[in-house]
Amino acid sequence: MAPRKQTQPLRQQPRRIARELALLSLSQVNAEPEKLQEEELEHLVTAATRTLTGEIQDALEKATTEVKRGNEKILRSEICAGSLEEAKAMINEALQLTKAAINHLGAAVELPEFIALSKTYEVRAYALELIGVVHRRNKEIETTIETVLVDWQLSRLPKIDRDLLTMAVAEILFLDIPYKVAVNEAVELAKRYSDEEGYRFINGVLRRVIEKNQAALKSR
Fold it and tell me: Which domain of life, per UniProt (predicted)?
């Protein structure tokens, strides 16, 4: 699972936090989103933050492992390298491992702020709006995705990838979110919760959804 990459403070990104909260909550919403009571909404926030807490614990463990591996690579480069180029390559790998460890630690630092902001009205309101659209327009969203899938069936995709796609398409078709924003946000979440293959796949599918939607608008 990739570490969170931020370009600005979390407090400036309520919709980004709302999207993440919606993604973590989608599978837990049993009732109609419009009928969720404050107590049930609090349950969603609690469950979502527990998921993130577990992720951060995993990240810290990975960070520790990567630092140790990086240190071992540096020692090996000094002892075992047969040439200067081989030593450079081993040191570079060690630096990459250390960089990954630092990124994991950065995600841990952000968790308290994420938990606090996930309880604000603005974040909850958009999270619920997004969940509601996904539930109400689910058939239309899934049909749109299925028409652009190549050699794949939506039902066969990993659940996290399906949820990310349905959320992004809901934003594109029904929430008037700019194409670039919807795609970029989905890709960033995929980097965090899916894998490299997953986020590239999601990016490609959403690009085709946008092309199809643009063509449909021009033909009107």
Answer: Bacteria
User: Cα dist. 168→5, 107, 187 in Å?
Assistant: 19, 23, 10
Three-class DSSP labels, the chain: CCCCCCCCCHHHCHHHHHHHHHHHHHHHCCCCHHHCCHHHHHHHHHHHHHHHHHHHHHHHHHHHHHHHHHHHHHHHHHHCCCCHHHHHHHHHHHHHHHHHHHHHHHHHHHHHHHHHHCCCHHHHHHHHHHHHHHHHCHHHHHHHHHHHCCCCCHHHCCHHHHHHHHHHHHHHHHCCCCHHHHHHHHHHHHHHHCCHHHHHHHHHHHHHHHHHHHHHHHCC
pLDDT at residue 3, as a whole number: 39
Q: Is 108:87 a contact under the CB 8 Å cutoff?
A: no
What's the confidence (pLDDT) of residue 170?
97
- Amino acid letter for position 67: V
Q: pLDDT value at position 140? A: 96
pLDDT at residue number 202 = 95
Structure tokens at 146: 């299925």
* Weakly modelled stretches of the chain, pLDDT under 70: 1-12, 28-42, 44, 47, 49, 51-64, 66-71, 73-112
Determine the pLDDT at residue 164.
Answer: 96
